[in-house]
Amino acid sequence: MPTTKRRALIIISSGRQLPLAKPAEVKSISTGFFLVEMAQMLKEFEKDYEFTFATPDGNAPQLDINGMALSMHYIEKIGAKTLPLRRQQRRRSFDVNSFRQRHPELVARREQEVRLLERHIGRIPVSELLPNSEPELAEYRPELIRRLDKLPEATFHSLQELVQRHRDAADAFTFADFDFIHTPGGHAPMVDFRDNPWLGETLHTARENGVTVSLICHAPIGVTSTRQRIDAQGAAYPVKDNPFLAAPIATVPKMGELFALSFLYPHAPGKKTRLSYFVDVAIKEAGFTVASSLNMSAPQTAYEPSVRLLTGNGPQAIDKQTAELRSILTHSPAARRTSSKQASA
Questions:
Q1: What predicted TM-score, i.e. pTM, was given to this entire model?
Q2: 250-285: per-residue pLDDT in tens?
Q3: Is 282 part of a structural domain of the chain?
């Protein structure tokens, strides 16, 4: 039996406030990452892997309470089940305990995910409830905070720290030790993953060291960062021939975002609600090809082997994406990789 585990890097956005373009009187809303888009990866790989956690700036990420809604745990059925479950919670007769009892499989999956969070990460903040958050979450949020407050604080490395350690010949750390990187979505990546040169350097360094990168939901906005790298002096510079442009990108579509802004938790009641940009539009404007689907709520993934980039379109795709990542790693053993620690980009 092996005595040491393999290694994986989990990069989580530390964004906590999502800017809005409309309504004018609401400048931003509380946001964070979706646990549902990370927990399945932790569950699948925890027996074989040791996880390292990082955020762009090294600050703790914030858990988006809206990603903990029971409807999110329908996974591939999210599209069909979200509005019916919301309607159930708007009835005068709504009772939170009865509601949970009617959906035991969803409650069980959420509980499993929280236990994974407790086991691997520890205490992190939870986003504020929004006016259009589901009523069940108003009951669940204080329960969750009480659990997390009992845990020690987690350590999150910054991307700058990891890149600099990789470049330091005297430091044993190397990206080549990671088999894969996974990054969950939620809206938070819109805050600190777009055009971030340290993230760009991280993704290029991972590519050069044969690391498979998995991005889901809003996290694929990170591909815009691959247009920049960081030189030996710590300055950003443009990438002339970006190999990541070969990858089709699966992500949350504009139509899906507009639906959420009209009917789901980001919506400001009684107001037209708009984000500062749409992820798929920004990815296209950066020169990438977005993988499209006629059914925006169906699970969709895209993989480009030349840069080992796997992307998915939202929580509905997390189980599919996790299985695909396992298959990719199985058929392309990381043991065949060689380290390429670099003194400069």
A1: 0.96
A2: 999 999 999 999 999 999 999 999 999 999 999 999
A3: yes
Residue 139 lies in a domain: no
Instruction: Give domain status of residue 59, yes or no.
Output: yes
How many domains does the chain contain in total? 1
The residue range of the domain holding 168 is 6-63+155-331
CB-based contacts of 151-154 (< 8 A; 24+ apart in sequence): 151/118, 151/122, 151/123, 152/122, 152/123, 153/60, 153/122, 153/123, 153/124, 154/53, 154/60, 154/121, 154/122, 154/123, 154/124
Find out whether 251 and 283 touch, Cβ atoms under 8 Å: yes
CA distances from 213 to 156, 189, 251, 307 (A): 19, 15, 14, 9
Q: Does the structure show a pLDDT above 80 at 343?
A: no
CATH for 224:
3.40.50.880
The terminus-to-terminus CA distance of the chain in angstroms comes to: 38
Residue 262 lies in a domain: yes
With pLDDT > 90 as the criterion, what percentage of the chain qualifies? Answer: 92
User: Quick one: pLDDT at residue 3?
Assistant: 54
pLDDT in tens, 56-103: 999 999 999 999 999 999 999 999 999 999 999 999 999 999 999 999
Question: Mapping DSSP to helix (H, G, I), strand (E, B) and coil, where does residue 188 land?
Answer: coil
Output phi, psi for 18, to 5 deg.
-100, 115
Q: Which residue type occupies 256?
A: G
What distances in angstroms separate CA 118 from CA 111, 113, 184, one per listed residue? 11, 9, 17
Closest CA relative to residue 324, chosen from 341, 308, 306: 308
Say if residue 236 is exposed, middle or buried (CB neighbours under 10 Å; 0-12, 13-18, 19+). middle
Maximal C-alpha separation, the chain: 65
Among 201, 275, 287, residue whose Cα is nearest residue 238: 201
At 144, is the secondary structure helix, strand, or coil?
Answer: helix
